[in-house]
Amino acid sequence: MGIQNFLKEISDTKRFKNLPSSSREIVFYSESPIYYNYYEDIISYILETATAQICYITSELYDPVFQKQNDRFKVFYIKNLVAPLIRELDAKVLIMTMPDLERFHIKRSIYKVNHLYLYHAIVSTHMVYRKGAFDHYDTLLCVGSHHIEEIRKTEEIYNLPPKTLIEAGYPRLERIYKDHQTYDSGDTKPRHDRNYILIAPSWSDQNIIETYADELISHLMKLGDSYTIVLRPHPQFLRSKYKFVLDLKKKYKEYENIIIEIDLVSDTTIHSATVLITDWSGIAFEYAFGTERPVLFLDTPRKVYNPEYEKLGIEPLIVKLRNKIGKSVPIDELSTIDKVLLSLIYEKNEYRKKIIEYRNTYIFNWGKSVEVCGKTIINLCQ
């Protein structure tokens, strides 16, 4: 099977390189199937409003995106050869959701390509990402004013050349919001007699799943059988600790109201959850701003990948809004989590008003971000 996969990769690499330059002006790269969720609406907008052809490179052989390709949208499986391919890429614009360009195996193209970063999280840029994570991109599609403030301050402190910062917004969030309106008014809800509690942490050290899963679940079970607990690991955690997740799934398989979810492409649990429990994950904003429901934060040690983040003098958004779009619980008070969760459910209407207010404040172009992102990419081709 490994040889067959590699032969498929070689074939797709040749097929990509043999395309005329006019057929690969716009190139998207995806590390895994989950990232198509961030690209989908932008790709549809470009195909509907422009004549450009799009190439989509995925490093997952069985990516469902292969089923969506057509004459103007061509999909290629390239994994082990993706680094040299991008290094020699001759295109107008390359769109990625992958930070740390130039820092590891993926380098900038040697040609005059506009390297464009599409944020796949609303969180701030300076604490949960590595130092220099965005330094080598040409254009950033910024979610909100916090991104622009942080990037400009970073450029100032480290004497970096200015990047093109677009007041873009967040297409992924708008998709969640639209889907949630349909979900909330339709007949697709599972088990109306239950409240769903979604646990979706980050993948940093001492995250909820790896360190506190058993203790957290035991306290939540005090709520009774009318509550279903859904534990959804971060994609990176699932990739690196797959056996750990499978063992956890096996451990709780006899419990009808405990679900360990490993299908991370679907958003069903986001829509069905009455409350989200997380630590420092960006899903907090996608859930709160997309469903207009509150978040319960566990105060695990901060997810810090840039030890110099405090140099900017800017409070990260996940810290600033932590007790505004929900409530935070110290780890040593984990035994109170059932009561805090019930209070969030009781006060959900009050939180909804606050959440809408903060969404309007911190998200650019609400309802129009797909158009802004699509037009930016089209204009870069011209």
Short characterization:
With 382 residues, the chain is an alpha/beta fold. Helix content is 39%, strand content 16%.
Explain this structure.
The chain is α/β, with parallel strands linked by helices. The chain folds into 2 domains: 2-170 and 366-381, Rossmann fold; 174-362, 3-Layer(aba) Sandwich (Rossmann fold). Helix content is 39%, strand content 16%. The chain is built from 14 helices and 13 strands. The strands form 2 sheets. It has a 7-stranded parallel β-sheet with strand order 3-2-1-4-5-6-7. It has a 6-stranded parallel β-sheet with strand order 10-9-8-11-12-13, with helices on both faces. Strand 12 (295-299), helix 11 (317-320) and strand 13 (326-330) form a beta-alpha-beta unit. Helix 2 packs across helix 14 and helix 5 crosses helix 10. The longest helix is centred in the N-terminal third of the chain and has 16 residues, at 2-17. The model has no long low-confidence stretch (mean pLDDT 93).
Strand order of the largest sheet: 3-2-1-4-5-6-7
CATH class of the largest domain: Alpha Beta
Structural class: alpha/beta
Largest sheet: 7 strands, parallel
As for the number of domains, it is: 2
What is CATH's topology name of the largest domain?
A: Rossmann fold
Q: How much strand content do the residues show?
A: 15-25%
Average pLDDT metric: 93
Count of discrete alpha- or pi-helical segments spanning 4 or more residues: 14
CATH H-level superfamily title of the largest domain: CDP-glycerol glycerophosphotransferase, C-terminal domain
CATH architecture of the largest domain: 3-Layer(aba) Sandwich
Distance N terminus to C terminus?
Answer: 42 Å
Rg from C-alpha positions? 21 Å
Q: Helical percent range? A: 25-40%
Which spans of ≥5 residues are poorly predicted at pLDDT below 50? Answer: none
Outline type: globular
